[in-house]
Design a protein that fits this description.
240 residues; 6-stranded mixed sheet; alpha/beta; 6 helices; Rossmann fold; 28% helix; single chain
Length: 240
């Protein structure tokens, strides 16, 4: 069942810019970006390498701060928040999924997920979450004993178990084959639909855009257009 879409903005950006200083060279990663992301939306941010996707995700995730402009999570001004507030925001509100898993190698799958649950305010059950990503039988295995697809599903479970309002995914299928990618996208859609959560995926794969409620197209650090999908397709129908 599709969740009812909220009209409340979860994330708001106004004239958001990020400039990196590399020696004497200024790199304008984002330039005057404006957008709103509503509660319960499934968003894909699409663009080529160097378009500003990862920079935008880092700002929304509280891992970096803007050079100028405004960025809010609900009523929290992320652009002005101190390091303590950003740490609490990342801990309590955000789940992260990266392209290259970032699992702790000397912990089992269950322990990797449990570690995330221990810092969360209202976590899901660890064993139940592993079962939801199809890895109930692999909980006592170390990352080196798991395939790439299984490691990514552990990484998904680690993010989901926190029960975050916002799930941020940086190229979550970038290192996976098409069948495993479909599995990962199905898990993300189920989390979104079953728990009414906001999910943001950044990718360069145009096929993934069709599963989103809205698609933000980034080019040269700016949003070139935003497209609404009236009827998002299921992950099984994505063209790879």
């Amino acid at each position: 069942m599709k969740p009812d879409k909220s009209t409340k903005p979860l994330i708001r950006a106004k004239a958001l810019s990020k400039i990196y200083q590399m020696g004497e060279v200024e790199v304008r990663a984002l330039t005057g970006v404006d957008f709103e992301i509503l509660e319960n939306e499934f968003i894909v941010i699409l663009g080529p390498s160097g378009s500003g996707k990862s920079t935008l995700l880092n700002l929304v995730g509280g891992m970096d701060q803007a050079t100028s402009g405004e960025l809010y999570y609900k009523d929290l001004p992320l652009h002005q928040a101190d390091s303590k507030k950003l740490t609490l925001y990342r801990r309590d509100a955000v789940g992260f999924v990266f392209q290259f898993y970032n699992l702790i190698p000397n912990l089992t799958a269950w322990e990797n997920v449990s570690l995330s649950a221990e810092i969360a305010k209202n976590p899901f059950d660890v064993s139940t979450t592993l079962a939801q990503v199809g890895l109930a039988h692999r909980g006592d295995h170390f990352p080196s004993q798991l395939s790439g697809g299984e490691q990514q599903r552990v990484a998904l479970a680690r993010a989901i178990v926190k029960n975050p309002d916002l799930l941020l995914c940086d190229e979550p299928t970038g290192a996976l084959d098409s069948q495993t990618s479909i599995q990962v996208l199905k898990i993300l859609k189920e989390f979104h639909e079953n728990y009414h959560k906001t999910v943001i995926i950044i990718t360069h794969n145009a096929g993934v855009a069709a599963i989103a409620d809205r698609v933000f197209y980034l080019k040269d650090g700016a949003i070139s257009k935003i497209v609404t999908n009236a009827q998002p397709i299921s992950p099984e129908k994505v063209t790879w």
